[in-house]
Amino acid sequence: MTTIYLLSLMVLVLAAYLAARSRAVAMAGKAKGLGPLHSLPAYHGLLAAACVLTAMGVAVAIGAPLAEWWARTSALEGLPPDITGDALKRGAALRDIIGIAAGYPMGTPSSALEDAAKVYARANSIGAWSALGIGIAAGLGALGLVLSRIDRLFRARNLFERFVMAILIVCALIAIVTTIGIVFSVITETWRFFFDPSIKGKPTVTDFLFGTDWNPQAALREDQGDIQTAFGFIPLLAGTLLITFIAMCVAGPIGLLSAIYLSEYASPRVRALFKPVLETLAGIPTVVLGFFALLTVAPFIRSTGESMGLNVASESALAAGLVMGMMIIPFISSLSDDVINAVPQALRDGSYALGSTKSETIRKVVLAAALPGIVSAFMLAISRAVGETMIVVMAAGLAANLTINPLEAVTTITVQIKTILVGDQEFDSAKTLAAFALGFVLFFVTLGLNYIALRIVKAYREQYE
């Protein structure tokens, strides 16, 4: 049914565009002596297509949920009261009914469930076809309204531009509301973690922010012994900063120097070849990079360290940082290359006219002019490194060690969030709510990085004509 609706939508939208455009062209031919049309025929067609698309979209957005609700209600009416009166049994029965109607029964269903599945399928089909008919009728009605309004003075361009503006505003509002919703949900759960008296074992704000031990796991059985639960944030922050620092030591120089070479020294042919290859690193899945770190980089670091008499863990911050640095090289290289290319050629020519060499011009003129953009590229790369999870899980481990030794195993904030929320969790326990507290602190860490980047950009920004 979804395919039929989409095909109907495409046909009606295309037909609306062609019909309105043809009518506008015909209207222009009849009104030659009265002056030109206010809007081009294409705008009449676009307005008609937009109206049809909106009408059919609203119809399916309202009709589809109503059809599904009617189908579920009709299916549950034939079940015994002991099932419909219990929320858990009713949900389980509804899942079985939907599975049977779709042709994927769970085991051997009862006759009551089979009858309910038939009712559900019949009601769902009727509702879907009804929604399709209402959508087509709404689209045809919108098309008829637009066609009746077309004349020489009809402001189709203004109306279509308002329609586009409304879509842009709605998209912006969705992004804003989504961000507010995410922040609000994280703040709510973080507040519960620290101040809800029903949560057992929760730490204080001071213990969380300045504690040096992290162990959210509590003893579940008596034979596990006395496990001391701790929610100290410092080891996670130290591990995050250590791995990020190693990654930036790799990606920063390589990314910036490669950007300088591609923008200032490489020929157009070399640039066209090397830049896509370099940016391919950004498209490699992080889990693949994690396997590379686990199976290649970490054993190499361990064997090299042991040959030098060093004690290297099988999972180390160095292995994760090196591979993560490889991952974020394209972020720095590509953005820095674009920023360097945006520096006006007049600045280079002026430097050459004063007797500067090419390297002096790059160091003292080009990089100075491109500094705000380069700083933004570095901050974006740092934020990407702070938020990385898979590479750290596979290469650095899960041990929350408070250390600055890159040869030891560490963990990061995002890894612990992933670890805590894996599987079935109780969202009224301190262990689960700790993930939201970590996310709340991580939000402010990245927000602080972005603020620093904006301050640097404003301080050193240059505007050129």
Question: Which descriptors would you attach to this protein?
Answer:
single chain; 465 residues; mainly alpha; MetI-like fold; 2 domains; two-stranded antiparallel sheet; 17 helices; 74% helix; 1% strand; flat
What does this structure look like?
The protein has 465 residues and is an all-alpha fold. The chain has two domains: 2-154, no CATH class; 230-460, MetI-like fold (Orthogonal Bundle). It contains 17 helices and two strands. The protein has helices at residues 2-30, 41-77, 81-84, 87-102, 111-149, 156-195, 205-210, 234-265, 268-279, 286-307, 317-341, 345-353, 358-369, 371-386, 390-395, 413-421, 430-460; strands at residues 214-215, 230-231. The protein has a two-stranded antiparallel sheet. The longest helix is centred in the middle third of the chain and has 40 residues, at 156-195.
- Biggest sheet features: 2 strands, antiparallel
- The residue-averaged pLDDT reads 83
CATH superfamily of the largest domain: MetI-like
Q: Mind telling me the C-alpha Rg?
A: 31 Å
In helices, the fraction of residues equals over 70%
Kindly report the spatial arrangement of strands forming the biggest sheet: 1-2
**Structure annotation, total helices:** 17
The proportion of strand residues reads under 5%
Tell me which CATH architecture of the largest domain applies here: Orthogonal Bundle
What is the 3D shape? flat
Total DSSP E strands: 2
Which stretches of 5+ consecutive residues score pLDDT under 50? Answer: 219-225
